[in-house]
Amino acid sequence: MQEIIIFVIFLILPFLYYRGLFYIATGVFNKSFLRTKTGLQIHHLHYGIVFIFIASLLILFWGAGLYAIALLGLGLGCMFDEFAASLLMPGNRPLELQVYRQSLFTTAILLSVVLLILILLVSLPATFL
Residue 61: which residues within 8 A CB-CB, separation 6 or more? Predict the structure, then answer.
């Protein structure tokens, strides 16, 4: 039961944080620090994916501890908070396809890094896992 309570709390936290921040300090959302520095369209949906990936690795290699459960809830909360908004966002399909075409190399590198992390984790001696 404790695991479910922790999961639910961390699932709700991103909604409360981001929606509260949006209505209290709207200027923060004009252009975030990471978007300014990298030029990338980084949203908390992306943070959620990273949190879920890390939680998945924790669960896969070390079992479902409280940290992994909290991180999984946090990741899903970040994703759910932006899910409907991203579906309702007006799109430009030709531009989307052009960006998709141009992202082949970057996506291949990202997938390679993820696979490398998995290989390294699997190859660690059992004493570390």
Answer: 121, 129
Q: What is the pLDDT of residues 59-106, one digit of tens each?
A: 998 898 999 999 999 999 999 999 988 899 898 999 999 999 999 999
Sequence letter at residue 59: I
- Looking only at Cα atoms, what is the longest distance across the chain? 51
Helix axes 2-24, 44-62, angle to 10 degrees: 160
Q: What is the C-alpha radius of gyration for the chain, rounded to an integer number of angstroms?
A: 18
Close Cβ partners of 67 (under 8 Å, ≥ 6 residues apart): 58
